[in-house]
Design brief:
By secondary structure, the protein is an all-alpha fold. The chain contains five helices and no strands. It has helices at residues 2-25, 48-74, 84-108, 113-134, 139-170. The radius of gyration is 27 Å and the shape is extended. The N and C termini lie close together (8 Å).
């Protein structure tokens, strides 16, 4: 964004210089033309499909609200999962991939690090949530809480800050 602003500023300065040259070379001109230093940029209208997608997503989110009640009242308190280790290894592998991708993109100054950072922050919060809510009482819960507070949530906050900072620069 900064490069764009600098480009607009130099364009405006060139326009001012051209106008000044025109005025000094023109005789009998009684008034000077005022050139705005900053032109108003028209905001692009969102595509019609984006509006429809937004409404569809809103409707789906609202439709999930009654489903939350069904889940809360109908699911058993205990459950056994067949592929429990694969689920956790997969989640942690996605977190590692997200952290590496975010770090590499941020180190290169690539603005796409915001996307990787947002996705990674989400994965880390989900991991902290499921670690603490599925841990057995006692030592398992204490370890899950320590991991959440000492690693997952601080990393999620860092990734979230990176994503928000990059997005605020684009706006």
């Amino acid at each position: 964004m900064k490069g764009r602003a600098d480009g607009e500023r130099s364009k405006t300065m060139r326009q001012l210089l051209l106008r000044e040259d025109e005025l000094t070379g023109a005789e009998g001109l009684g008034r000077a033309e005022v050139i705005p230093l900053r032109e108003e940029v028209e905001k692009p209208r969102s595509a019609r499909g984006m509006g429809r997608a937004g409404w569809l997503l809103d409707a789906c989110g609202l439709a999930l609200l009654p489903w939350l009640y069904v889940l809360a009242t109908g699911l058993p308190a205990n459950a056994t999962a067949e592929h429990w280790p694969i689920a956790w290894v997969g989640l942690d592998a996605l977190e590692a991939l997200g952290l590496i991708a975010t770090g590499l993109l941020a180190a290169r100054g690539d603005r796409r690090h915001a996307l990787a950072a947002a996705a990674t922050a989400t994965l880390l919060v989900v991991d902290a949530w499921f670690d603490t809510t599925t841990a057995a009482p006692g030592g398992d819960f204490a370890a899950a809480l320590a991991m959440a507070l000492g690693a997952e949530l601080p990393l999620a906050a860092l990734c979230g800050r990176l994503a928000l900072r990059a997005l605020s620069r684009l706006a």
